[in-house]
Amino acid sequence: MATVNPIQFIQQVRAEVAKVVWPTRREVFLTTVMVFIMAALTAAFFALVDILIRGGLNAILGFFG
After folding, report:
1. Are 12 and 4 a contacting pair, CB within 8 Å?
2. For 2-38, what is each residue's pLDDT tens digit?
3. Fewer CB within 10 A of the terminal residue: the chain, N end or C end?
4. pTM higher than 0.90
5. Which has the closest alpha carbon to 16: 8, 24, 5, 4?
6. 18: nearest Cα among 7, 10, 26, 27
7. Residue at 43 is within a domain
8. For residues 4-22, b (16+ Cβ closer than 10 Å) or e, as one string?
9. CA-to-CA distance for 36 and 34, rounded, in angstroms?
10. Considering Cα of 24, then 29, then 32, then 34, what sign does the dihedral take?
11. Which domain holds residue 49?
């Protein structure tokens, strides 16, 4: 692997960073909202599954116990 001059390295880094397409404020806001919505839906789903499993186990244990 060839060694690169530190100044040349910094120039290459700046050139690569210039190619990055940064998201707009609106895109960041919308994706953040979508993440929170999906997290809430996932939490609600697993809470519902937990309640159903707990109820089923309580019914089974109550029947045999």
Report:
1. yes
2. 777 899 999 999 999 999 999 999 999 999 999 999 9
3. N
4. no
5. 8
6. 10
7. yes
8. eeeeeeeeeeeeeeeeeee
9. 5
10. negative
11. 23-64
Position 16 in a domain = no
Scanning the structure block, which residue is given the tokens 């001059």?
A: 5
Q: Rounded to whole angstroms, how far apart are CA atoms 42 and 36?
A: 10
pLDDT for residue 64:
86
User: Cα–Cα distance between 39 and 42 in angstroms, integer?
Assistant: 5
**What is the number of structural domains in the chain?**
1
Place of tokens 């690569």: 16
User: Which band of pLDDT confidence, cut at 50, 70 and 90, is reported for residue 1?
Assistant: low
Task: Read off the tokens for 6.
Answer: 């530190």
